[in-house]
Specification:
It is a single chain. The chain is an alpha/beta fold and about 475 residues long. It has 16 helices and twelve strands. The strands form two sheets. Strands 9-8-7-6-10-11-12 form a seven-stranded mixed β-sheet, with helices on both faces. The chain has a five-stranded mixed β-sheet with strand order 1-2-4-3-5. Helix 1 crosses helix 16, helix 6 packs across helix 8 (about 230-245) and helix 6 (about 190-205) crosses helix 15. The radius of gyration is 23 Å and the shape is globular. It binds nicotinamide-adenine-dinucleotide (NAD). Nicotinamide-adenine-dinucleotide binds near residues 146 and 327.
């Protein structure tokens, strides 16, 4: 097993960008360090009846803005270094997309396959109880969300446990995001990270000069995409890109890969995955037991959406994609990053590209604090206003719209539409802020360094405004 060094890798990216600032060393050190780390152990009964002591963490990397925010990961391989690295990425990510949170991350070191649902529920509730005892959770202090190995189900257990421990706390539902809609969740959170990746790719592919440099046609349509990891992030990224006319030519999972140069239908692959427990043997596609080979398939865009350390110095020279869109956190080691940059590939970094989840989590948290669904107050008002405007135009022109033409314009806006437009606006705005910063800073020629520089400036500003570093 190679030595883990995810936190060191994130720090290297930080240092590379920090060199383009003249902040005092102490301020940079404060931004970089993980401020609080809570590690605890508790017993859990496994499927076979035996007791295992489970290790868990919550890392709060930076409290320069409160609450801090970050997902919870369930994985047998997770360790302290990984949790701290993921928490650090959350600090920078929130700053880049201007979500007013500090960064955090949590994890439980479990192999979820060794537990049944009731046991996982008990583990999740115990984890929440431990976080509550130490005030490492709460709508004003620290708000977890889903990550690798967790989803709506776990978030509902967390919300329920927290609420039961805080009777009468009116904003208690804001203690966690990624909840089911029936439990205070927001429409569009499940697909948010994948959809965010799609908005990023669409914007990147719309830059004619960048595409020309990469030898690609402008626009997303027809782009050949390979996705590694077909979970929440990978599936939704594939689905949204497919819907926009891109071609998903290969998908890699933990047990192998499938490929079809004519394009795979993500929804059908997902149904196959759900029914069989594997994407392999998908009808009409070629199956390979070698999951790593998919990274080297000839394609335009590679979306690593599984775990960290997937693109390394060893395999990066074989990557043929012109665009690497980082859905996972930390999929590219600094050595692999250097190889890809050397080759002139466009690497859209995790610290920005997969921010869709936290952006929509922010919307969910706002919804929980305001206790009102997005669009509830203004939806009808807006539809009536549009109707009056259309009638005025009809009167002035003498023309008359058909019922379906009218319905296409006049419709009460729903929560999902509002959430998706907020997500798109945030992703597109940040893309140009990062790209502009890259162009205007001498010595920076990659989006990752520019994204980190943007984050450092914003976090530093927050400290300086509070007078912490006069
Ligand atoms: P998930 O658990 O829903 O899915 C991950 C998938 O990757 C699983 O299907 C798993 O079998 C597969 N996988 C594991 N190892 C693999 C390998 N070596 N090759 C190919 N596939 C492999 O997790 P997720 O929520 O989609 O998260 C994936 C990544 O995206 C993580 O790095 C996570 O931190 C990051 N991320 C997630 C979110 C979110 O909102 N869920 C937000 C930002 C970033």
């Amino acid at each position: 097993m190679p030595e883990r060094r995810f936190y060191t890798d994130v720090s290297r990216y930080f240092d590379r960008a920090a060199a383009f600032t003249d902040y005092p060393a102490g301020l940079l050190d404060q931004i970089k360090r993980c401020n609080s780390l809570y590690r605890f152990d508790f017993p859990a009964r496994q499927r076979d009846g035996s007791i295992e002591v489970v290790r868990a963490w919550r890392a709060e990397h930076s409290q320069h803005r409160l609450p801090v925010k970050g997902g919870i990961r369930y994985s047998a391989e997770v360790d302290e270094d990984e949790v701290m690295a993921l928490a650090a990425l959350m600090t920078y990510k929130c700053a880049i997309v201007e979500v007013p949170f500090g960064g955090a991350k949590g994890a439980i070191q479990v192999d979820t396959r060794r537990y049944d649902v009731e046991q996982l529920e008990r583990i999740t509730r115990r984890y929440t109880y431990e976080l509550t005892r130490k005030e490492f959770i709460g709508p004003a202090v620290d708000v977890p969300a889903p990550d690798y190995g967790t989803g709506q189900r776990e978030m509902a257990w967390i919300a329920d446990t927290y609420q039961s421990l805080h009777p009468g706390q009116i904003d208690a539902l804001g203690c966690v995001t990624g909840k089911p809609e029936s439990q205070g969740g927001v429409n569009g959170r499940v697909e948010a990270t994948g959809r965010g990746l799609f908005y990023v790719l669409q914007e990147a592919c719309a830059q004619a000069d960048d595409m020309q440099r990469l030898g690609l046609a402008t626009g997303l349509e027809g782009k050949r995409i390979v996705v590694q990891g077909f979970g929440k992030v990978g599936y939704w990224a594939a689905q949204c890109c497919h819907d926009a006319g891109a071609r998903v030519v290969a998908i890699a999972e933990h047990d192998g890969a499938i490929a079809d140069p004519r394009g795979l239908d993500p929804a059908r692959v997902r149904a196959h995955f759900g029914a069989r427990g594997t994407i392999l043997q998908f009808p009409g596609a070629t199956t390979s037991a070698d999951r790593a080979a998919a990274l080297a398939i000839d394609c335009d865009v590679l979306i690593p959406a599984a775990l960290e350390n997937q693109l390394t110095a060893a395999n990066a020279p074989r990557v043929r994609a012109r665009i690497v869109l980082e859905g996972a956190n930390g999929p590219t080691t600094p050595e692999a990053d250097a190889v890809l940059r050397e080759r002139g590939a466009l690497v859209v970094p995790d610290v920005y590209a997969n921010a869709g989840g936290v952006i929509v989590s922010y919307f969910e948290w706002l919804k929980n604090l305001s206790h009102v669904r997005f669009g509830r107050l203004e939806a009808r008002y807006q539809a009536h206003a549009e109707d009056r405007l259309l009638r005025a135009v009809e009167r002035a022109t003498g023309a008359r719209l058909a019922a379906d033409e009218r319905a296409a314009v006049v419709r009460p806006v729903d929560e999902l539409t509002i959430v998706n437009s907020g997500l798109e606006e945030t992703m597109v705005t940040a893309y140009h802020q990062i790209r502009d910063l890259m162009h205007e800073t001498e010595g920076i020629d990659d989006l990752r360094t520019a994204a980190f520089l943007l984050a450092i400036r914003r976090v530093a500003q927050a400290y300086l405004e509070r007078g912490v570093f006069p």
